[in-house]
Amino acid sequence: MEIRFKRPDGKETSGYLAMPKGGEDTPGVVVIPEFWGVNDQVKKVADRLAEDGYRALVVDVFHGKATKDPKEASRMAADLDRETAVDQDIRGAVVHMEQRSPGTRVAALGFCIGGGLALAAAVRVRELNAAVTYYGIPPVDLADPRQIRIPFLGHYAKKDRSYTPEKVGDLEKALEAGGVNHELHRYEADHAFANDQRPEVYDRKAADLAWDRTLAFLQRTIGGTPAESFVPAP
C-alpha cells in the first residue's frame, strides 16, 4: 500500500509498504530502488520481503518520478540530491518504521544507485541496525565506508562495468581498514543481475544465491524467521 510519512526536516514523503502476516511486531527493511524509481519490480521486492516475514518500505527518493527509459533514468540519477535522499528520505523511512513498532530493528537494502545510498545510510543514518547493498558504491564525499559501524552485506557482479572489480576491491580494502563488520560477495554476473525484469542481465542462479544470503544476514542482524536453505536453480 502507498503511505506518506514525515522526514526529519518536517516535510512529507511517500513510499510503498508491504506488511507480513506477523504484522507490526516484525523487523523492518527500508528498500531503496534503482534509478528507474518506484516501479512494479521494486514493489515486488518489498512484497517478497513481506512473504519472508519483514515489514518492507520502498522509499521514493525520486519523489514520484519513475521511468522505463534508460536515458531518463540516467537523468533522474544525475539530478538526485543524494545527501538529502539519505539524510531526509531514507532516514525518515527508517525512523517511521521504528516508530510504527518501537523496539524492532531496521535494515536498509538498496539496488544500483539505491545500493550506494544504502551504504551511505550505513554511515549517516544512526538509527539503522544493518545495511545490504546490491551493486552500488557511493561517492566518498557522501560517505566513507571506513566509518560504517553496523553490519554490512554487499553483493557485486564481476562483469559490472560501472562498479568494476577494481572499485569493489577498493571498497573491500576500505571496509577492512575501518574494521567494519562486513560480508562481501562477488558473482559471475552482470550489473543488475537480481532484476528479473531485465532479461538481458538477469541471472537467476546468482539472484537466488544473493537473496538467500540476504535473508540469512537479515535474520542474524535484525531478527526474523531464519532463511530456508538455498537450492541452486536448475
Structural features, described:
With 234 residues, this protein is α/β, with parallel strands linked by helices. The protein has helices spanning 40-51, 70-79, 82-100, 113-124, 165-177, 204-221, and strands at residues 2-6, 12-18, 28-32, 55-59, 106-111, 130-134, 152-157, 182-187. The chain has an 8-stranded mixed beta sheet, sandwiched between helices. Strand 1 (2-6) and strand 2 (12-18) form a beta hairpin. Helix 3 (82-100) crosses helix 4. The model is unreliable at 226-234 (pLDDT under 50).
What gross morphology would you assign?
A: globular
The assembly state of the depicted protein chains is: single chain
Strand content: 15-25%
Compute the number of strand runs: 8
Low-confidence stretches: 226-234
According to CATH, the homologous superfamily is Alpha/Beta hydrolase fold, catalytic domain
Mean pLDDT: 94
Q: Based on the structure given, which CATH architecture is correct?
A: 3-Layer(aba) Sandwich
**Class by alpha and beta content:** alpha/beta
